[in-house]
Amino acid sequence: xxxxxxxxxxxxxxxxxxxxxxxxxxxxxxxxxxxxxxxxxxxxxxxxxxxxxxxxxxxxxxxxxxxxxxxxxxxxxxxxxxxxxxxxxxxxxxxxxxxxxxxxxxxxxxxxxxxxxxxxxxxxxxxxxxxxxxxxxxxxxxxxxxxxx
Length: 149
Prior knowledge:
Pnp Oxidase, Chain A; alpha+beta; single chain
């Protein structure tokens, strides 16, 4: 990282940012070499990022063709026009994405997603679970960055 003064080295602070944010931006690139960035709701659990998606589509096609992905989140964003800067806290992730095959793991992650994003008492029917993929990003690099000046 060029700006070492903005790097977050505390792993718990990086995890805290990932746990606080609700939307992340998934960057993929398929066989056609066309990049795509997609906003996704996610959960951060056990050092991995998980999100749900349909059973087919460009995002999934890209992941199957090239599992190397980028993922980023940002929070506490405040533009300071006087100082001509932006205050923020962010995390950038490099990792390998794969569809979760284990029915038990899939159900566990769907429960985490429901707990985080759905109304109290909501649940996922077997029918909905059957037409939902869960993708895991196993992070190979996590970089936190902030500007609080």
